[in-house]
């Protein structure tokens, strides 16, 4: 095992075993290196790597701290990476959405409070009769994020949120080019909301699957043609 990887594993072990709690400060570099049997240079590289993925927070002049380790913080790196993928890879993100979002929607139908359900209904009500595609997609993102938060699972919510960005442009292009896409989106959102309001988790899951799969299938068809590339961002 490379020395830096060994150093990373040793620091992670201290966190996992509770020796370093969220928010706690790491010992001085020299002391920690000696304690873990590492060179100061390999320890420094490990700290740099763990800070990039938001496990550690290096504060200039103050020291190095374990972050809060909250899922949304740790999964932030996923959103950063997926922003660089090209159109054909968007299909893979949509495939993952098709797995995760129905599960979140099912949980939301069980766990959402009446107030949260009312908030979901309010999001739908914000759209006018003839919204622009951009307004519809922005509303769509808020709608799905609200449901993900309503699942009560922070990890699931953070994963879904990190996957939203790479699929936004595909959603906009679908709305501009596919006949009836706007109407179907609104109808499916309404069906999902009604299932959640009625506390019908299986129905909510089914509608969420249909909804995400529709975008995925459209993109598969679009990318299969000679003029299928999405317009540049």
Automatic annotation (TrEMBL):
SMART domains: FCD (SM00895), HTH_GNTR (SM00345). GO terms for molecular function: DNA binding; DNA-binding transcription factor activity. Gene3D superfamilies: GntR ligand-binding domain-like, Winged helix-like DNA-binding domain superfamily/Winged helix DNA-binding domain. It holds the Pfam family FCD. Coiled coil: none annotated. The keyword Transcription regulation applies. Residues 1-69 form the HTH gntR-type domain. Keywords: DNA-binding, Transcription, Transcription regulation. It comes from Micromonospora deserti. PROSITE patterns: HTH_GNTR (PS50949). This is GntR family transcriptional regulator.
């Amino acid at each position: 095992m490379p020395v830096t990887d060994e150093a990373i594993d040793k620091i992670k072990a201290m966190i996992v075993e509770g020796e370093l709690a969220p928010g706690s400060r790491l010992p001085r570099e020299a002391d920690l290196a000696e304690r873990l049997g590492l060179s100061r240079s390999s320890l420094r590289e490990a700290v740099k790597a763990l800070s990039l993925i938001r496990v550690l927070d290096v504060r200039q002049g103050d020291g190095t701290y374990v972050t809060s380790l909250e899922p949304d913080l740790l999964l932030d790196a996923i959103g950063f990476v997926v922003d660089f993928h090209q159109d054909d890879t968007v299909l893979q993100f949509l495939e993952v959405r098709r797995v995760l979002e129905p599960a979140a929607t099912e949980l939301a139908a069980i766990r959402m409070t009446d107030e949260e359900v009312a908030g979901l209904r309010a999001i739908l009500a914000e759209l006018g009769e003839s919204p622009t595609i951009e307004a519809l997609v922005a509303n769509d993102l808020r709608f799905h994020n609200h449901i993900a938060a309503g699942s009560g699972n922070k990890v699931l919510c953070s994963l879904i949120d990190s996957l939203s960005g790479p699929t936004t442009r595909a959603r906009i292009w679908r709305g501009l080019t596919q006949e009836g896409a706007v109407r179907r989106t609104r109808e499916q959102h309404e069906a999902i909301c009604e299932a959640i309001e009625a506390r019908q988790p299986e129905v909510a899951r089914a509608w969420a699957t249909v909804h995400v799969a529709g975008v995925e299938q459209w993109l598969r068809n679009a990318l299969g043609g000679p003029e299928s590339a999405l317009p540049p961002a």
